[in-house]
Amino acid sequence: MADGTTSAAQLPEDVCEVVRLWPPVDEVAFRDGLAKLASGVAIVACATDDGPRGLLVSSLTGLSSDPPRILFCVRKAASAHGALLKADAVSLSILADADGLEAERFSRSDLAAERFGADWSLEPQSPPDYRDALVSLSGPVCCRIDAASHTIFILDVSAARARHGDPLVYFERGFRNLA
Predict the structure, then answer these.
(1) Cα dihedral across residues 95, 101, 106, 112: positive or negative
(2) Across the strands, what pairs with 143?
(3) Distance CA 98, CA 96 (A)
């Protein structure tokens, strides 16, 4: 491309083949290492013909401020993965330290019936909006990238709202508060 970047369409199909030349990593050690990576958590949600769908993610990062973009990753085996693949627009609600129960609802399939309660705005043709979010972002999905067991989603942020507070953090396989 003229600006020196490479589009996904220009990458060779075997761009990740070099990784396979190294010996396989010990999966338990890898997962234990990732458990040490503290991360904010967010609920990603979309509207479908069958009602709202969503899940909790801890793999998210700001990507660009111009244009405003954020990326998040979703495991393909997740129950809402298919709905997110089809969604034109999604919301991403970064949770505050008081949102532990909401995080549990969206991280456990046995609590799925408790999702999207009174704290949610469910407008037709719009992604669900968690009113108590520390940060609320929404917009169209501009890119979906196949990444082995996950899909990487890139969101073009068209609406943003933030309030004061501390985030809910996921660390060592549990939800934590700062300090």
Answers:
(1) negative
(2) 154
(3) 5
Q: State the DSSP string of the chain.
A: -TTS---GGGS-TTTTGGGGGSPPPPHHHHHHHHTTS-EE-EEEEEEETTEEEEEEE--EEEEEETTEEEEEEEETTSTTHHHHHH-SEEEEEEPBTT-HHHHHHHH-GGGGGG-S-TTEE--TTS--EETT-SEEEEEEEEEEEEETTEEEEEEE--EEEE-SSPBEEEETTEEEE--
Backbone angles phi, psi at 146, to 5 degrees: -70, 125
pLDDT in tens, 32-78: 888 888 899 999 999 999 999 999 999 999 999 999 999 999 999 99
Q: Which two tokens stand for residue 5?
A: 């970047």
Pull the structure tokens for residue 2.
């003229």
Question: Alpha-carbon distance 10 to 50, whole Å?
Answer: 37
% pLDDT > 70, the chain: 88
Catalogue all structural domains in the chain, each as residue range(s) with its CATH number. 39-174 (2.30.110.10)
Q: Which residues on neighbouring strands pair with residue 169, listed in sequence order?
A: 40, 176
38 Cβ neighbours under 8 A, 6+ residues apart? 169, 170, 171, 176
